[in-house]
Amino acid sequence: MIRLVTFDLDNTLWSVDVVIGRAERRMHDWLRPRVPEYQRLAKADHAALRDDVIADNPGIVHDISLLRERVLAETIEHCGYPRPRAAELAAGAFAVFLDWRHRIDFFAGALDVLDTLASSYTLASLTNGNADFARLGLDRYFSFGYCAADVGASKPHTAMFERAMAHAGVTPGEAVHIGDHAIDDIEGATAAGMATVWVNLVGSDATPDATATVTSLSQLPTTLAGLESRVARTNG
Predict the structure, then answer these.
(1) Which candidate, 173, 197, 175, places its Cα nearest to that of 185?
(2) pLDDT band at 229, cuts 50/70/90?
(3) How far apart are CA 2 and CA 34, in angstroms?
(4) Which of 77, 54, 73, 55 is nearest to 64 (CA)?
(5) Within 13 Å, how many C-alpha atoms sit on residue 14's CB side?
């Protein structure tokens, strides 16, 4: 019997490139009058400063919110601002980014599908990103969620999947993970012993070893019902 269904968020329930691109533009708009030097740095300078932050704090790579704000602070300080002022400006810029990062255009039917599934399964979110499911109002459907920062490891590492199963009190045979990424989602969840549903909304030619594949979110209830039947036959 399937009891727990975990969902990836970015590019499974919405297009992350659209969201992040818009959030970064709004952040730059906020920074422009306050730190005009920020826009004048070359891309190579921005990349080098980010690399330096990671090199000095390797554990930070799984906490992308902390990483982004730390890089902002280091970059603004590099532009000639005192460290306390740089930290203050970085916090303001990141707050703007995070606000717009949570202005989501869900894929068609996504919320209806979550509503349907939540009546039959415990739902949870598992993301390498920094989208807060509660801030998005998805706590109507998700009972809990974990991100890479919570467990100190990013998918495809099995830590997030294992934490979710422990939280829900289920075995791998009672859990299914749904996501778009062939490696992070499908390989990672498979390694944790979970069944998987690959969400291929873009017509990818990839062939991940998923338990099932959908090309529309509306197919998920029927697909999970089919997995239920398969589990029942196996256990029978």
Answers:
(1) 197
(2) confident
(3) 52
(4) 54
(5) 19
Tell me the two tokens of residue 28.
């730059």
pTM: 0.93
* Per-residue pLDDT reduced to its tens digit, 140-192: 999 999 999 999 999 999 999 999 999 999 999 999 999 999 999 999 999 99
Token pair belonging to 189: 């969840």
pLDDT at res. 236:
47
Q: Read out DSSP for 31-76?
A: HTTT-HHHHHS-HHHHHHHHHHHHHH-GGGGG-HHHHHHHHHHHHH
Helices 83-101 & 16-31 angle (0-180, nearest 10): 140
* Average pLDDT taken over every residue of the chain: 95
DSSP for 7-41, written as a single string: E--BTTTB-HHHHHHHHHHHHHHHHTTT-HHHHHS
C-beta of residue 178 within 8 angstroms of C-beta of residue 194:
no
